[in-house]
Amino acid sequence: MNELTKYFLMLHTVLTIIIGLSMWLVLKIFIPEMLVKGYVAIPSFFYLFGLIFIFCFKHFSNNNSSYLVNLYLFMKISKMFTFSVVIFIYWIIHSQGLRNFIIIFIIFYLTSMIWETHFYLRMEKHIKLRKIA
């Protein structure tokens, strides 16, 4: 499990840096009017949530598949609630750039959903192999 966790941590860090920098460059070069204040907070926020996701599955995973599904759904619901709060706070602070912020946020959210689905599938495969052995 430690080897799998190291793999996920490395992959998550590299993906966050690559996606964050490439999106920032695209916005800076091609669509500068869409670049929002506090852009760095968006990739940082998703990185932090990814770390929480990885460590929750590392510390709370067991052989019960229904427990893992419930944990996964709980993480998704808490993530959606937290994202709503962040967007609401941004709306209060910077109401002018809200549309751009939400678009960038949704792009990061979709990429994180793809990554988390990959993570969850690999975790399930790891648990099944551990049961067989």
Poorly predicted regions? none
Assess the beta-strand content as a share of residues: under 5%
Tell me about the biggest sheet?
Answer: none
What gap, in angstroms, lies between the N and C termini?
14 Å
Q: Which series of helices and strands comes N to C?
A: HHHH
Tally of helical runs: 4
Give the helix/strand class: mainly alpha
Number of spatially distinct domains: 1
- Give the overall shape, derived from the CA principal axes: elongated
**How would you state the average pLDDT, rounded?**
86
Q: Give the helix level as a range of percent.
A: over 70%
Count of strand segments: 0
**If you compute it from the alpha carbons, what radius of gyration comes out, rounded to the nearest whole angstrom?**
17 Å
Secondary structure layout:
Elements: H1 2-29, H2 41-60, H3 65-93, H4 98-132
Helix pairs in contact: 1-2, 1-4, 2-3, 2-4, 3-4
Give a verbal description of the structure:
It is a single chain. This protein has 133 residues and is an all-alpha fold. It has helices at 2-29, 41-60, 65-93, 98-132. 84% of the residues lie in helices and 0% in strands. The model has no long low-confidence stretch (mean pLDDT 86).
